[in-house]
Each structure stands twice: as C-alpha cells, then as structure tokens.
Amino acid sequence: MLYKEPAPIKDRENPFESMMSRFNIAAEILGLDEEVYNVLKTPTRQVIVNVPVTMDDGKVRVFEGYRVIHSTILGPSKGGIRFAPDVFLDEVKALAAWMTWKCAVVDIPYGGAKGGVICDPFSMSAGEMERLTRAYTQALIDTFGPDQDIPAPDMGTGPREMAWLMDEYSRMKGSTIHAVVTGKPLVLGGSLGRVEATGRGVMVSAMAAMEKLGMDPAKSTAVIQGFGNVGAWAAKLMAERGVKILGVSDVSGAYWNDNGIDIEEAIEYKNNNKGRLEGYKNAEKISNDELLVSKVDVLVPAAVEDVITIKNVDQIQARLIVEGANGPTSYKADNIINEKGIMVVPDILANSGGVTVSYFEWVQNRMGFKWTLDRVNERAERIMNESFERVYAASQKYNVPMRIAAYIVAIDKVAMTYKYRGGF
Ligand code: NAD
Q1: CA 15 – CA 117 distance, rounded (Å)
Q2: Count of CB atoms within 10 A of residue 157's CB?
Q3: How far, in whole angstroms, is CA 306 from its chain's centroid?
Q4: Ligand 1 atom closest to Cα of 231?
C-alpha cells in the first residue's frame, strides 16, 4: 500500500463533534449566516450499503459499507475509502467534511466525501478483497462517477483496490473510465509525483512558515514522528533544504542523533528492513514521547492522530509544528499551543499536497495526457505556496491561529460559492 488519502482527526468520543468545534469557531468569526451554517454542518448524502461477498471457504458474508458525501458545492466530491474493522458512520462523516475543507483550502474544484467498509483487510485474502471492492463499487455505481464522486485510497486500501474499483465501474458503464478514481497504479493512469506529494507539501509548508518566523532552514533543527510515506519524504526533502533532522520515529520507537540523522541512509535501512527503523544503529534510541517534546525548532507529526494532547502539550519545545498527519493535535490542546506562541501549520493545509496531486491525476485522466514529474511538482508547489499565503493572510486579518484561519478560508470559499449557486 503506497499511500492513502486524507483521513482526519479521530477523537474517539465523537470525531464529527471534534471537527465541528473548530468549524464553529471559524464560522462565528466569519459571521456565517444561519442558512449557510446549516447547509455546511450536515452532509448532503449518507449512503449505507450491505454487500454480500463469497469468502474463500464458500460461505457468504454480508459487509456493511458507507459513502458519505459532505458537500458538492465546489464540484464533484472527493475522498478516500477506508477498510477497517472499527470504521463507523460518524467517523466517515467527519472525514467527509474534512475533505471539503481541505479541497477548499487549496482551492481545487472538489467537494468532500469519504467511504468505509467494516472489515479486517489484514485477515482477508486478495480474492476476498477483490470481491468486496467490486461488490462495494457495484452497490455505489450510481454514486461514484468522474463528475459526481471520485474515491481514492485511505486506511486499508491502496492502488490495488483502486484498480479493481476502476475496472468494475468501467465494466458496468461499458467503457474505460480512468477518472472515476485516483490513487491508481501508474500503469493504469496514476500520476507521477503522487507518492511523494504529501511529504513534499509538508516540506513546502514548513519552508513557508519558517520564512514567516524568520528561521533559517540551514540553522534549524527538526524531528519527524512517523517514517512512512509522509514522514520519510518530508524528512528527506527538508534535509535537502538544510534542516538538520535530529530525530525520526516509527512504531518501533524513536531514533536521535545530535549531529543529525542521515535521512537517505535511514530510508535505505527502512526499505531493507520491512519498512521499519527497528534496529537502526546510527542513532540513540529514545521513546516516541521524548521525541515529541525534544528541544528542536520544528516538530512534524506524520504518523497518527491525537499525539499532541493536554498530556504533553505543556512540554512541547518546538516553535513550529507542521501537521503531516491528519488530526495529530487534539482539540483540547489548541488553546495551550496558542498561549505558548507556537505556530501550527494545520493538517488541512500542511498535508493537502496529496489531494492536490490526486486532483492532477483526475485532470490528466480527463485530458488523456500525462504530465512530467517536473510539471506535477512545480504546479503542486505553487498551489501549496499560494494556499499557505492565503491562510497566513487570514490569520493576520482576523488575528487568529493558522488552524482557525485555514477553516475561515475554507468555509468562506464554500459559503461564497453556495451563495452564487443559490439554494432552493
Ligand atoms: P504510513 O503507513 O506510510 O506511515 C505511518 C508511519 O507512522 C509508519 O512509519 C509507522 O511506523 C508510524 N507510526 C504508526 N504509529 C506510530 C506511533 N504511535 N508513533 C510513532 N510512529 C508511528 O502512512 P502515511 O501515508 O505516511 O500517513 C501518515 C499520516 O498522514 C496519516 O495520518 C495519514 O492519514 C496522513 N496523510 C497521508 C497522506 C498520504 O498521501 N499518504 C495524505 C494526507 C494525510
């Protein structure tokens, strides 16, 4: 599985309410009128399907699946499909809304959606996964579509499932329709640069924020939590710009070197070690908790949600946090971060390089033409920089932290579009 698309905050109590807490602050500052508030706070459509699938033992099991379309105001809805045993409707609702805001922040013409199927992908055979993916696609054949709703990978799904989805959809429609899904394998119309797109966007956001804070990358230090797709690419690209990466971590623990981790070497080690840093020698082993509160200039959480919470926020020493992961900071930690004067480039901005290049994949599919890697990177960097500047300007104008500013930019864009389009 190479990459996933934006998942969000996962405040286990109620992810939708956690997302709404930040939405509400921004809506109030914007003076959003009640009509638009009511439109944006509820998803447009929630579909629940039950799909029968023949398992390898010959028995038929019925899987419950969801597709939530939060908004189509800006364009066709976009969002990943999560295969997980604990996925639930409120989580999918939160994720769908998250996608609306993320697409609006980077100003791409998409609404937000998300899908999920309750299953355990790690205990299922490839055949079972294929039959489930095809059955789920059939059940949602009237929902998906290149001009309606465009899925992508999320937790538990990847390019393989997207290829099956594209194939099933195309068979049912009677022609090959690449643009119905993004995150496909390269040979099937995937985009160059998609794999590294999120990490690259994190790097671009970090550079833009450092410039605002008057920090010289070549004299700055950073730690990266998570050394998967997003974390490793962010570390590599930040190191190339002179930032000294003092620590990196993954599920096996954290690794620290006062002279800086050799990122190329650590990536090579990980690639030859089943994707893990376990046993990495050229660094001192510390705990993941220590890494998060270590004395560095920049902290990049790029692993899981809820790692910066009221339990550790007091001890955070970084001046800048760039959220590669979705929802790494709990809502309750926001105020203390703001009091400490730490700048946070929020997830809906910092990790939106991924959905931006997914959008490029869709554009290329519709043109029937492939862009070069340079063209993809140059256009994605421009979008990231412009988006950062928009959010930064809003934070200055409304005198709010970058997170709330990002919501303001997103809600304002969607609300204005809604006003022009008109309701009933
Ligand atoms: P990944 O599976 O490739 O990597 C995750 C990394 O985090 C691994 O190194 C894993 O070992 C590590 N990890 C897991 N639990 C940890 C823990 N408790 N402490 C420290 N490290 C831990 O995933 P990814 O694609 O890099 O995604 C990372 C985050 O970025 C997720 O929140 C994801 O939703 C978000 N995101 C990813 C993309 C994308 O394009 N890949 C886009 C937007 C957002």
Answers
A1: 17
A2: 28
A3: 14
A4: 26
User: Residue 152 and residue 162: Cα distance in Å, rounded?
Assistant: 7
Q: State how beta strands 298-301 and 45-54 pair.
A: unpaired
Give the number of the atom of ligand 1 that is nearest the alpha carbon of residue 326. 32
91-108 pLDDT, tens digit per residue, is 899 889 999 999 999 999
Tens-place pLDDT, residues 30-47: 999 998 999 999 999 999
- Distances from the Cα of 226 to the Cαs of 143, 255, 285, in angstroms? 35, 11, 15
For 146-156, b where at least 16 C-beta lie within 10 A, e where not — what string? bebbbbbbbbb
303 lines ligand 1 (CB under 6 A): yes
What span, in angstroms and rounded, lies between the C-alpha atoms of 375 and 383? 12
Backbone angles phi and psi of 145, in degrees to 5: 160, 145
Indicate which residue of 93, 102, 114, 413 is catalytic. 114
Q: Is 114 a catalytic residue?
A: yes
Look at the pTM and tell me if it is higher than 0.70.
yes
Least Cα distance to 95 among 16, 40, 182, 12 occurs for 16
